[in-house]
Amino acid sequence: MSQGVERKTVLYLIRHGATEANLARPPRLQGRRHNPPLSRLGIRQAEATRDLLAIRPIDRCYASPLLRAMQTAAIVAAPHGLTPQPLDALIECDVGRWEGLDWPTIRALDAEGFQRFHANPAEFGYPGGESFRDVYQRVAPALDELLDLHAGESILVVAHHIVNRTYLAGLLGLELAQANQVTLDNCGISVVVRAEGETTVSTLNAAFHLQGVAA
Q1: Is residue 2 part of a domain?
Q2: Domain with 82 in it: what CATH number?
Q3: Residue-by-residue pLDDT tens, the chain, 215 positions
């Protein structure tokens, strides 16, 4: 009698839709201290993501408790009849005193902190906030636990740029100091697959569904 084939576990890891801070030129840093809603464009991005994933089987939905992530998750999960469950471990990085500032302003106000952070964000974090290592150490166990808890299912998770990029960097074998190399669009979709005991990134930042999306 043949043994059943183990079903793979699929994690759709999505960055939230754009807020006004994301759309500013230059963009403003946005951590957890402010809690803005999606912009009109961010809503359209979430709707495009919903339409793409509507035909995919999705069994569970989790999100960062911040409004921009919960709004995105609610839109994307709607065709599946799911209500997003907030998960505190997925909250965005605390960017400390740099919250709401853009990079040119930060460089002008705090050149030393700017240089230290960009040289090694894993160890030298945001002043008064978190480092990439701090974020990874709370995010990776939480997402790995979801993969364990929902083995054989498909999971939708909506979180944030630094949250997602540090987790993906770890799976890709990058040092956390190199996590900035993982660039993720608003509502970009990354797919993580666990099969036969191995967890791999099968898709990184799919964003073709966002072409032509406008507010």
Answers
A1: no
A2: 3.40.50.1240
A3: 345 567 899 999 999 999 999 999 999 999 999 999 999 999 999 999 999 999 999 999 999 999 999 999 999 999 999 999 999 999 999 999 999 999 999 999 999 999 999 999 999 999 999 999 999 999 999 999 999 999 999 999 999 999 999 999 999 999 999 999 999 999 999 999 999 999 999 999 999 999 999 87
Q: Which domain holds residue 101?
A: 9-210
What span, in angstroms and rounded, lies between the C-alpha atoms of 162 and 31? 9
The torsion angles phi and psi of 63, rounded to 5 degrees, stand at -155, 155
Give me the number of domains the chain comprises. Answer: 1
Residue 4 lies inside a defined structural domain of this protein: no
Cβ atoms < 10 Å from Cβ of 24? 12
